[in-house]
Amino acid sequence: MLRWAFLFLIIALIAGIFGFFGIVEAATSIAKIVFFIFLILFIVSLLTGRRA
């Protein structure tokens, strides 16, 4: 999941260099959402994994 966040971040940076502002906004918003989902799932797995 973290790879997807970095992938969309790189897409946003490349699109920003070339001036595609609509793609930049979409890619950065997707990257933020995927990154926060990754953080939530990571914290949940840390909390539940320790109780084995």
Automatic annotation (TrEMBL):
Domain of life per record: Bacteria
Transmembrane feature ranges: 5-24, 30-49
InterPro entries: DUF1328
Keywords in alphabetical order: Cell membrane, Membrane, Transmembrane, Transmembrane helix
Protein known as: DUF1328 domain-containing protein
Annotated organism of origin: Paenibacillus arenosi
